[in-house]
Design goal:
Layout: H1 11-22, H2 29-44, E1 48-55, E2 58-65, H3 72-85, H4 87-94, E3 98-100, E4 121-129, E5 132-141, H5 149-188, E6 192-197, E7 202-205, H6 207-212, H7 237-245, E8 251-258, E9 263-274, E10 279-288, H8 290-326, H9 334-364, E11 372-373, H10 375-392, E12 396-401, E13 409-410, H11 413-429, E14 436-443, E15 447-454, H12 475-478, H13 487-497, E16 501-507, E17 511-519
Parallel strand pairs: 12-14
Antiparallel strand pairs: 1-2, 1-5, 3-4, 4-5, 6-7, 6-10, 8-9, 9-10, 11-13, 14-15, 15-17, 16-17
Helix pairs in contact: 1-2, 1-5, 2-5, 3-4, 8-9, 9-13, 10-11, 11-13
């Protein structure tokens, strides 16, 4: 040891502590680490220094400072062994600093082949944050007993201050890396992305959005108001209308079209907010659905063409079949049986065309949901309309209705009645003679509920997920009951367009419970 070891800090030591404190405002992690090593090595009179930075319990190989010029592979090998067997590893595991007064008498010091740096004494301290070792710094000298307990205490104080500076710089570095990663992700999105302030000025755009606006660089776009890009193209007009409404909603979904480019877009728009800074705005994502819309328009056109081209020959066939029946006066002639078969199949095909067009019309036509519908009266109409069908099969047709005082439902009453009648009709169809069909209708604070229970054949679990799909029919029932498999699809589409949900419970041989619920909207002033 020194003959006269220091016990009190010198002016130089205090100046060093002040310089380390100034690093708290530094955000460059590499600069913080290099200055910490340089200042500390100067303070303890070290000839060399090394530092291993840890993050998440692993060595941060981008921030390893060794005493020798090593290649990347050599650094990994040397550092790994030192942390596993050497002095720095001991300090890391024990979370406390220590001194090696003579490296030739301490097994913790590892000497590597071809190491030309003479080392006889070493000092190592950990940088600890929240009981986790953030870094380990090692100082060496070519003379034994160079480092003293004062050096150890002083370096521990420096480490405590430097830890805060390193943690701050790490946070900024990680945040910058995350921002770069987010920027890369946003730039790679195929959809057009706009970030707007609350007035509609553009804060950020990705390359797809820049191209959509007819520009080449984001600098030509950022800072301008969306209204600048309206011109003859109404693409962004729905977005501006939402901004101008100052709505309290947090998310919107809408469709828009670029007349200039002849392309269709599906828009998702949501609000963002920074409460601490008191600012807010909107994120707008525009997904190009032109191909899907073109296919949809093509499908509609083909449906109309097919329905027209099918109806014409069906009418001709039906007409000639009726003429054949009139020209066959003999009632016992087998011709009448053949004619009846042809007529039944023509009627079935005509009904199929009607069902297809009805389902497509419900899915694609504008839905006017402005009528305040008396849902209790609507249920009573359905019961009156469907009772004769049940009685014709000698079924018990019961109703359990609890709709007294139910608010008026804002809906399309014709479509809702069709959905109810389809569910009741299905129950009657698949319930044998003498069976039971019971209708439940009720409501709570949020929903109106309509359920039809039957004692019919039931549906196996593996078929239940598919019964709402168009043209799907449960295999065991195909031969027993006629149908096109479109009734339940119609119900699902009607209910979905009213923001409701269909339900199903069924057991083979015990019957089924088909139903739906719709959200209740109390009329203003009621």
């Amino acid at each position: 040891m020194d003959a006269n070891p220091r016990l009190q800090p010198t002016i130089e030591d205090l100046e060093l502590l002040a310089r380390v404190s100034q690093l708290l405002n530094e955000v460059d992690l590499d600069k913080v680490l290099s200055q910490v090593i340089g200042l500390a090595a100067q303070a303890v009179g070290a000839t060399k220094a090394s530092l291993f930075l840890h993050e998440g319990g692993q060595v941060d190989w981008n921030h390893v400072f060794t005493m020798r010029d090593l290649s990347a592979s050599e650094s990994v090998r040397v550092v790994s062994r030192v942390l596993h067997e050497g002095f720095a590893g001991w300090v890391y595991r024990n979370k406390k600093g220590d001194i090696i007064y003579d490296t030739q008498q301490d097994a913790r010091w590892i000497v590597f082949p071809n190491d030309k740096t003479p080392v006889r004494s070493a000092l190592c301290v950990p940088f600890i944050s929240d009981d986790h070792v953030l870094a380990v710094v090692t100082f060496v000298h070519d003379q034994p007993r160079h480092f003293t307990p004062y050096h150890l205490r002083f370096m521990t104080i420096i480490a405590n201050q430097a830890t805060i500076a390193i943690r701050n710089a790490q946070s900024v570095t990680n945040l910058s890396a995350q921002r770069r990663q987010l920027q890369s992700t946003l730039d790679s999105i195929a959809d057009a992305l706009f970030v707007l302030d609350e007035l509609g000025h553009i804060i950020h755009v990705n390359p797809t959005a820049v191209a959509l606006l007819g520009e080449r660089h984001s600098a030509q776009v950022v800072g301008y108001h969306l209204s600048r890009y309206l011109g003859e193209d109404s693409l962004l007009r729905p977005v501006l209308e939402i901004i101008e409404q100052r709505s309290d909603e947090s998310m919107w979904r809408l469709d828009t079209r670029s007349d200039r480019q002849g392309r269709d877009y599906q828009v998702t728009m949501s609000q963002w907010e920074e409460p601490l800074r008191g600012i807010r705005g909107y994120v707008v994502v525009m997904h190009d659905v032109t191909t899907l819309r073109d296919l949809h328009r093509f499908k509609d056109e083909m449906l109309h063409i097919a329905s027209h081209d099918l109806r014409s020959p069906l009418s001709v066939v039906t007409g000639y079949v009726n003429m054949i029946a009139l020209d066959t006066p003999d009632p016992n002639s087998p011709v009448h049986e053949y004619v009846d078969i042809i007529k039944r199949n023509c009627e079935r095909m005509s009904g199929l065309i009607d069902d297809i067009l009805r389902v497509e019309r419900i899915k694609s036509s504008p839905l006017e949901l402005h009528a305040e519908t008396d849902i209790e009266a609507l249920v009573k109409v359905v019961l009156v309309n469907m009772r004769p069908s049940a009685e014709s099969k000698k079924q018990r047709f019961e109703a359990q209705i609890n709709l007294s005082g139910v608010p008026h439902l804002v809906a399309d009453p014709v479509l809702i009645r069709q959905a109810m009648e389809n569910l009741v009709g299905n129950a009657i169809k698949y319930t044998p003679e003498g069976g039971l069909v019971r209708v439940y209708a009720g409501y709570d604070d949020r929903r109106f509920t309509f359920v039809v229970q039957d004692s019919g054949i039931g549906i196996a679990p593996e078929h239940q997920p598919y019964v709402w799909e168009a043209f799907y029919r449960v295999p065991q029932s195909v031969a027993k009951e006629k149908g096109h498999g479109l009734g339940l699809s119609l119900v699902r589409n009607v209910i979905a367009r009213h923001n409701g949900e269909v339900t199903l419970q069924s057991s083979v041989g015990k019957g089924s419970r088909f139903g739906f619920w719709l959200p209740l909207h109390t009329p203003p002033g009621s």
